[in-house]
Pyridoxal phosphate homeostasis protein
Amino acid sequence: MVTENLNQVRENIKAACEAAGRDPKEVTLIAVSKTKPVHMLQEAYDAGARVFGENKVQEITDKYPQLPKDIQWHMIGHLQRNKVKYIVDKVALIHSVDSLRLAQTIEQEAAKHDVCVPILLEVNVAQEETKFGLKTEEVLPLVESIAKFPHIKIQGLMTIAPYVQNPEENRPIFRQLKKLSVDIAAKNINNVTMSVLSMGMTGDYQVAVQEGATMVRVGTGIFGERDYSKQAQDK
Ligand SMILES: *Cc1c(COP(=O)(O)O)cnc(C)c1O
């Protein structure tokens, strides 16, 4: 099932790229494997997936040693400062930086491990109360502060769009994030690129691709529905 789903998602990304006149190579599919067992990740790996997204530090550290070393792990969930140390040398990209304090902790831990950590800033474009992320107007000042950190490299922006029935409803959200990234790129800030735009999930990734996403984060569309009740019992 995972292999078929993965191929379907790839086809859909290709179609969305064609509709928008984009090269499918510009779009990285992140297989969001949170709550899913290692054998399902292995199946995705065997079908060619190399980039996996997780939203819990514990799951990354559990799965990391059980799977091939050429996987790129992306931290896409809210990150607590006291857990940064467990993943700073394991993740290829942290999508969810939304405060100076968190960035300071990443800088300290990255310096200890002598690594440079690529990050995205998470923007709560829709200003939903229940979500983490920066307000649009907070992004540039934070970029300017973090740009000075030698062990962090800002590579772009991420947003989690609202849950909607019709993905078209999120098109303006994706446009706003794209515009913000273009505006920030135009400032030519040292040590900062805006090459990554992480937006679009199972319900709306085709629209996100049409609006310029360079990374889409697809979980359900690849691995099926998540069963949180079962996971809670297991723990
Ligand atoms: C769970 C999650 C996803 C994937 O959601 P689906 O709707 O299952 O595709 C994407 N991004 C983030 C940040 C997530 O936490």
